C-alpha cells in the first residue's frame, strides 16, 4: 500500500537514509505485516528496513480542496459569464452563500477534524478564515468585473461614436460631391475632390473641337417683366423665368444629352456647350458628334418652351446662336468657383444669338457646313455686320418649328 504525506525536511529523523527533501512527499511502501500509525500532530511510519521517521504536519496544512473548488467556481463565473456585472455579482453571491451554508453550517464537522492552521489569522477558527478568504476573493472579482464592464462600455461608446462620425463624414462627403457636381461638371468635380490636387493648382482644359449654344428670350424683360404690386415687385416674373430654366435643366437629365453641359444663365439667356469631356472627341467615331447633340438640345428647348406657352398662356420665343471650334474651359474663383469657357468660338456663338432673329437658330458658316454634311438643312442669311469680327456670312438651321419664312438661299 502506498501513502503520500507532506513533510518538512527539518522534521525528518537523522537515521532516514534520504536527503535533499524540502516540503516534498515522503512515499512509504508498507507491506502487509508492517504497522502504520497516525497521531494527531505527527505521523510515524514503519519502513521495510525497520527504520522509523516522524513527520510533523502542523505547518504544512493548507485549506481543503472544496474551498479551492469554490474559488474556481467564482473565477469561472467572473471570467466566462458574458452578462451584466450586477447579474454576475448575484450569481457569485449565490455561490458564496451556497458554500457557506453547505460547509460552514451543514458540514461543519469537516473543519473540526482538521488541525488548526497557522496563518496571519491564527487567532480565528478555520471556518471563519475560509469565509474571510472567500469574501475578499469575491470582492476582488466584483471590482475586476466592474472595471471590465466600465472599460467594455467605454469601448463600445467610442466605437459607436466613431461609427456615427464616420457615417456623418461619409454623408457630408456625398452631399458635398452632389453640390459640387451641381456647380461643376462631373469630371471637374472629381478633379477638385481628388486628394492629389495641389491647393494652388489652376484647373483648365483645352478642347480642339466643342460646340457652344446661346439661347435667349428677348421678349421676357422687354414685354413680360414688370415691377409693381401685382407682380410683387417682379418676384412673380422671376418665378416664371425660374420655371422655364428649370424645364431646360431637366432636358440635361436625358441620356442622349449626357455630353451637354449647362455653363450658366445670364438674365434670360441660357448658355450651354457640348464636347467638354476630356478625351471624348477621340473616342467618338465622328469627331463632330457634339454639334448634332447640341442642335438636338436646342430643338428640344424650343419644344419645351412652346409647351410652357400653351400651359401658361404666354408667348415667349427663343433666339439662338450656335458655333463650334476650339475653346478653353476652366474654373475661376476661390470662394464661389465657377466653371466657364473662353475663346473665339464662344464669342461667335454669342454674336450669333445677339445678331439673330427670334424663333431661329443662327450658326456660323463652318458649323453650317458640318450640319449640311449630315443631312441637316441650313439656309444662308448672307453677310451681316458682327461686332469685333466685321461682316460674316451666317446661316439659319431650318426646322419644323421656325416662325415664318425667310427668303434666303439654301446651302
What's the main sheet like?
9 strands, mixed
- Approximately how much beta-strand content do the residues carry? 15-25%
Radius of gyration computed on alpha carbons: 49 Å
The mean pLDDT is 76
Question: What is the structural class?
Answer: alpha+beta
**Which residues form runs of ≥5 with pLDDT under 50?**
1-62, 117-121, 407-411
Report, as a whole number of angstroms, the end-to-end distance. 127 Å
Number of helices: 11
Gross morphology is rod-shaped
- Element string (H = helix, E = strand): EEEEEHHHHHEHHEEHHEEHEHEEE
By oligomeric state, this entry counts as: single chain
What percentage of residues falls in helices of 4 or more residues?
40-55%
Strand count: 14
Overall description:
This protein is α+β, with helices and mostly antiparallel strands and about 400 residues long. It is built from 11 helices and 14 strands. It has helices spanning about 65-80, 85-105, 110, 125-185, 185-195, 220-225, 235-250, 280-285, 290-310, 345-355, 365-370, and strands at about 1-5, 25-30, 35-40, 40-45, 50-55, 205-215, 260-265, 270-275, 320-330, 340, 360-365, 380-385, 390-395, 410. The strands form 3 sheets. Strands 6, 7, 8, 9, 10, 11, 12, 13 and 14 form a 9-stranded mixed sheet that branches. Strands 3-4-5 form a 3-stranded antiparallel sheet, with no helix packed on it. Strands 1-2 form a two-stranded antiparallel sheet. A hairpin with a 5-residue loop joins strand 4 (about 40-45) and strand 5 (about 50-55). Helix 4 crosses helix 5 (about 185-195). It starts with a strand and ends with a strand. Residues about 1-60, about 115-120 and about 405-410 have low confidence and may be disordered.
